[in-house]
Structure formats: C-alpha cells, structure tokens
UniProtKB/TrEMBL annotation:
Domain Acyl-CoA dehydrogenase/oxidase N-terminal: 6-117
Domain Acyl-CoA oxidase/dehydrogenase middle: 122-193
Any one Pfam family match given in the protein's UniProt record, by short name: Acyl-CoA_dh_1
Cofactors, names only: FAD
A molecular-function term among this protein's GO annotations: flavin adenine dinucleotide binding
Keywords from the UniProt entry: FAD, Flavoprotein, Oxidoreductase
Annotated protein name in UniProt: Acyl-CoA dehydrogenase domain-containing protein
Acyl-CoA dehydrogenase/oxidase C-terminal domain: residues covered: 218-367
Superkingdom, natural source: Bacteria
Length: 368
C-alpha cells in the first residue's frame, strides 16, 4: 500500500478544501465554538451526506466508502488547516475501534450509523489522563440483559454530545470494550473547560450504565490500542495541516507588513525565523506521511514506532509554528480579534492529546 497522492486523493483534497473554505472560515469557527455543542449540525450532516467522508475508513458492506487510512489522513490535514469545529476525530477513532474489535455483529449494527453521521467517541483516559491499559480503572459487571459499566472517564473528545460512547472497562477477565448509548440512564456528562475552544472534551461519570460488550470479554485492549494509534496518525495529519496554515499566514503577513519603509519579510531575522519553521513543517509532514503509510499496512512491525515519532515531532512543530506566527504578526497576533491565537490553542491542546511528546519519546526509546 502507498500513501503517495494519486489523482483520486488529490481530487479528494481539493473537494474537502473547497468545502471547508465555505463552511469553516474564521467567522464560522468563532460562531461554532460558542454554541452549546461546539459544532454546526448542518456542516456535520453535509460531511456525511454530501461528501461522504465519515465513511472513508469503513467498508462498503458496512455502509462506508471502503477507502483506507491515507484518505482519512488527507481529510484530517485539511480539517486541521481549516480549524474545523466538528467531532470528526472522535468519530473516526470510535469507528476504527469497532473495526479492530473483530465483532462482526456489532460492526454491522453500529458502523452504518457512524458513516451516516452518528457522533461517536472512545472513552479511555481517567484521572491520570493517560491512554494506557494500566490506567483503566472503570469496571464492567454482568447484569440481566447485558452489562453494566461504572467509573469515570475524562478528556473524552466530544463526550458531551456523542450519541455512542465506546468505553474501556475492566472485568474479571481483563479490559473490554463496551458500547454505551449517549442518552443512557446513569451516564452523567460534564463539559470540561479547556484551552482549545474549537475542540470539546468532557468528563463522563458512569454509574451502572447499561452497555454492550464489543468483541470478547477481557480481550478488548488490542483493539483499543490500535484505535488510539490510528487516532494519533489522524491527529498528526491534522497538526501538519494547522502548522502549514499558520506558516502561510506568517509568510503572507511578512510580505505585506511594511516597517522602516520595507516589508518585514525582507529582514534577515524574519527570513531565518520563517525558514526554520518551514524546515520543521516539512519534516513533520514527512513524519505524518510515514505514519499514514504504516497505518495502511496491516501488522506493520514499525507502526507503533512511527506513530510515536509522528506524534512527538508533529506536536512540537505545530506549537512552534503557531507561536512564531504570533511573533511575526507582532502586537496584532496577541489580540482576540486575530485568528492566530485559535491555532496556538489548538496546537497546545493537540500536543498533549493521546500523550505528549515526552511520553512518546519515552515509548520510542523503549521500542528502539
């Protein structure tokens, strides 16, 4: 499998970019991030019905389009550049967890809905904020007619609005994956106050919530871990898209902002600053593409390694690019009215999502 950009993938990129230019401009982003849900239902419906991108990674027989993760990466890069307010990353992650679980009945029941626009999310992290098996303390017990899940999950992407929540919980046999209805009795959802207002997170308190076991009892962690790794790949692509956009913003401003009778982009200090950012962004792009290519290959032995590499490098590159964009813009870059701060907040938030660069460099060291 290849991640090279075929004509078909470039057409997909062009379509998504054109669509997002219409629905995810600065005014639309500012409007969406202040709503109760944090995103525009009409835009989400268009993503599902008009573009069909919610089903890119879902097989055709399960209601999807049947493409691979390279196409998801293309979409994620464009949504990152446009700072799209939508539960795209959360839903893609949940879909991949269902696919990885190997439960044909659950996949047939749930995945067509996700491809059609059902908002879903994966709830793993708890009080310590770590996305690791050892941190899962939520429990699941057999009950009449199914299972009951209890515990607390935090930093759940779009957890306050998700219609389907996939929960990692322990049984006597180990960690399992459980599907919970977003409106189920016993589920309390609390929106978290986060730095990044363009991506919502929530705390979920589960008190004996009815749930459906996905896959085999006690054998859910491999599917959960696979889904987290794929989410990291999508997030890295999103970070590259955002980093590229803020670099373009800085370059355009440096060309037009005149000081001492000449564009500030002609000053050597500004040239060096932007050149350094360019090198970082292009290196991050390469790391992201390597991770996407590995995601395309089943059982790639280097998949975990390249995803950690991409997460560490793309996170740092995005934060650096967003911070330097503000510096190039000077005083105006620090104001609420300018979009530069929105990208910096997304970069800072994304940096710690699914583990920060320090964590992933530790994982890299242990793997090497």
């Amino acid at each position: 499998m290849s991640v090279s950009f075929s004509e078909e993938r470039e057409q997909l990129r062009a379509v998504v970019r054109e669509f997002l230019a219409d629905v995810s401009g600065e005014d639309a982003v500012r409007a969406s991030m202040t709503t109760a849900t944090g995103w525009d239902p009409a835009v989400w419906r268009a993503l599902a019905d008009d573009l069909g991108i919610l089903g890119l990674g879902i097989p055709e027989e399960l209601g999807g389009v049947g493409y691979g993760f390279a196409e998801i990466g293309v979409v994620a890069e464009e949504t990152g550049a446009a700072l799209l307010c939508a539960p795209y990353l959360a839903t893609v992650t949940a879909a991949q967890a269902l696919l990885a679980a190997g439960d044909d009945a659950a996949a047939s029941d749930l995945l067509p809905g996700l491809a059609a626009g059902t908002v879903a999310t994966l709830a793993v992290a708890e009080a310590d904020g770590r996305w690791e098996a050892g941190s899962v303390q939520a429990t699941a017990e057999r009950a009449a007619g199914g299972w009951r899940v209890s515990g607390t999950k935090t930093f759940v992407l779009d957890g306050a609005t998700a219609e389907l929540v996939l929960v990692a919980a322990r049984t006597g046999a180990g960690i399992g994956l459980f599907a919970v209805d977003g409106a189920a009795d016993g589920l309390t959802r609390t929106r978290l106050a986060t730095l990044d207002q363009t991506r919502r997170q929530a705390r979920l308190d589960l008190a004996g919530v009815p749930a459906r076991l996905i896959g085999t009892e006690g054998e859910g962690w491999p599917a959960i871990e696979r889904a987290i790794r794929l989410a990291i790949v999508a997030l890295a692509a999103e970070q590259v898209g955002g980093a590229g956009r803020v670099l373009d913003m800085a370059v355009d401003y440096a060309k037009t902002r005149v000081q001492f009778g000449r564009p500030i982009g002609s000053f050597q200090a500004v040239k060096h600053k932007l050149a350094d950012v360019l090198v970082e962004v292009e290196s991050a792009r390469s790391a992201s593409y390597a991770a996407t290519a590995a995601a395309q290959r089943p059982d790639d032995p280097e998949f975990a390694l390249v995803t950690s590499l991409a997460k560490a490098f793309c996170s740092d590159a995005y934060v650096h690019a967003a911070a330097e964009n503000i510096q190039v813009h000077g005083g105006i870059g620090f104001t609420w009215e300018h979009p530069a701060h929105l990208y910096l907040k997304r970069a800072k938030s994304s940096r710690v999502l699914f583990g920060d660069p320090v964590h992933h460099r530790e994982l890299l060291a242990s793997q090497l």
